[in-house]
# Entry
Amino acid sequence: MKHRVVVIGAGFAGLQTVLGLKGADCQITLIDQRNHHLFQPLLYQVATTLLATSDIAWPIRALLHDRDDVTTLLGTVEGVDRTAREVVLRSGTRVPFDTLVIATGARHAYFGKDAWEADAPGLKTLEDATTIRRRMLLAFERAELTEDEAERQALLTFTVIGAGPTGVELVGILAELAHRILPREFRHIDTRKARILLIEAGPRILPAFSDELSGYAKAALEKSGVEVMTGHPVTECTWDGITVAGQIIPARTTIWAAGVQASRAKDWLAAEGDRAGRVMVGDDLTVPGDPNIFVLGDTAHVISDGKPVPGVAPAAKQQGVYAARTIVARLRGQPKPAPFRYRHMGNLATIGRNAAVIEYGRFKMRGWLAWWVWGIAHIYFLIGARSRLFVSLSWLWVFLSGQNSARLITQKETLKETEREK
Ligand SMILES: Cc1cc2nc3c(=O)[nH]c(=O)nc-3n(C[C@H](O)[C@H](O)[C@H](O)COP(=O)(O)OP(=O)(O)OC[C@H]3O[C@@H](n4cnc5c(N)ncnc54)[C@H](O)[C@@H]3O)c2cc1C
# Structure
């Protein structure tokens, strides 16, 4: 029987592992709870109506159609039986493995306030993006209908909690939508009066960037009409609004971009984890004492050059490449590769449609040229010619026409939203 490799998660790390195992003498099973691989860095553009869902996600089966050595399973993993060497799915199915690769990513962290999730959705999946898009667009529609001035103002107030790249990117496009694209389409409201707030508990926005670029991003956002509040954590969050710095801000749309927590892999393995729930792995990305179990990407706590590796896509991909190389070396009886080393590819974030900030060591770039570099890098990392063409054309269309084309209100209303509509 061939060596059985089971990979859980078809995100950046898991998919890269499978791609790296091409031609290896093993049988691979790839399990994911969704049927698609998702390019999370552009999720905010789906949420803010710039791109359609199919522009940034691809069916896993289609991606691997020419790989006879790979079986793809749609299922949610709920545990790992380390003694029996089996992965346990929610359906009860057990999938045996000789080598296991866990790359199940991260989810939102509400820092103990899990009840906030319903009123302040985070952005992690396509469903999250379309939920945010629906709530945002519905808020404008309801503001157009209502006769109640206070309600209208609450509907036209949008708060984003957390000012890392995702929060900054969301408010940047939201401001353009409200202040430049929508005004000519509504008759009873002036969407330019929409209040867009970016709230950050820390002292400044984009904390991973230098003071200089963080200051530039703040000034650029304020120029586009975003209110930036730093140094104040949100203390309450409900359907009606948020409380920050002792002030109640009525707002019908709140988006959470403040924190992530690793998937539950630590519990499945009964392994040691860090504060974010990531599994502590060795410099070969395996769980201490179990060299046949790898944990990668956002779910792993990896140290490289004395520092924890950040939870970003290039790090996850590099770990996938490394895990595949290690498995191939073992199968061929070759010496194991040198310890994993992370190569940092720089920090990037966009501010609206015309500016970005990029930092790579001492190299810094900002403004429209940085936006183009950011855009080319993202187009390059998309999968397949179709997506590259469609995303490039969508951006070109938005640039030339000033119209965001993916402004569809879809999905079933949640109970709370329906109640509000009555
Ligand atoms: C909104 C957003 C914007 C981002 N922007 C950037 C950016 O600009 N640049 C950058 O470098 N990084 C960015 N990131 C971070 C980057 O996307 C992650 O670091 C990267 O996706 C991690 O890869 P991964 O393979 O560890 O996990 P993921 O890509 O999250 O993949 C995990 C996979 O595991 C599956 N899974 C999870 N649990 C289970 C289960 N129990 N059973 C079966 N399957 C399961 C999921 O469905 C998913 O397919 C962003 C993230 C988000 C959310």
About this structure: The chain has a mean pLDDT of 93. The chain has two domains: 3-33+75-108+260-331, 114-258+347-421.
